[in-house]
Amino acid sequence: MLGQYLKAIANAVLRPLAQFFIRLGFRPDWVTMLGLVLNIVATGAFAMGHLRWGAAIMLLAGVCDILDGQVAREGRKETKFGALLDSTADRYSEIFLFFGIGAYLIRQEEWILSAILFFALTGSLMVSYVRARAEGLGEDCKVGVMQRPERIMALALGGLFGHDGLAFVLVVLAVTTNYTVVERLTHIRNKLKSGASPSTS
């Protein structure tokens, strides 16, 4: 996937910064929370109509989202709670960002686009939920055309292109996120069917 490819490049580019944070004694959880705070700032920028600033801050928060994992792995500080905190912060960040964009759209009286945003947010949350539920059943589920890195990149690019770019991205997300939910459900259904023991009469 494009998101995985970009993340691999970002990991290589950001490794010196991760090493610097480790030498300073930064904990991965601190980087995670910094990313959350930056996304809250981006939310405010979106709500006030500063779309390009919101997108830029959002991308900076994305850097933190990559760095926290690097600091955890390379600093030998990976913990189960850290993984849970990271996932929780990711969900809150996504909800906040959509809220900020929604506030902007309501101020612009873009009611149809606000409804489209609702479906984009619903799909985004359900993509993550299906993966978490599948993993709770012991099944890996990272398939789909619109995983979180792709969603964040799409939102940021849309914001950088202003109102029209953001509107286009929201329409795309409303369709592709919900399609990804169907992809993941189908993937798990097929895995469970293929792994089931043949019934005996």
The CATH top-level class label: Mainly Alpha
What would you call the quaternary organization?
single chain
Q: Which residue ranges are poorly predicted, with pLDDT under 50 across at least 5 consecutive positions?
A: 197-201
Report the order of strands and helices.
Answer: HHHHHHH
Q: Write down the overall mean pLDDT.
A: 89
The assigned CATH architecture is Up-down Bundle
Helix content range:
over 70%
Supply the helix-strand structural class: mainly alpha
Radius of gyration: 18 Å
How many domains is the backbone divided into?
Answer: 1
Strand portion: under 5%
| N-to-C span | 43 Å
User: Biggest β-sheet: count, sense, barrel?
Assistant: none
Report on this structure.
By secondary structure, this protein is mainly alpha-helical. It has a single domain (2-192), classed as Four Helix Bundle (Hemerythrin (Met), subunit A). The chain has helices at residues 2-24, 28-47, 51-74, 80-107, 111-136, 148-160, 162-195. The chain is flat and about 50 Å long.
Fold blueprint:
Elements: H1 2-24, H2 28-47, H3 51-74, H4 80-107, H5 111-136, H6 148-160, H7 162-195
List keywords for this structure.
Four Helix Bundle (Hemerythrin (Met), subunit A), flat, disordered C terminus, 201 residues, mainly alpha
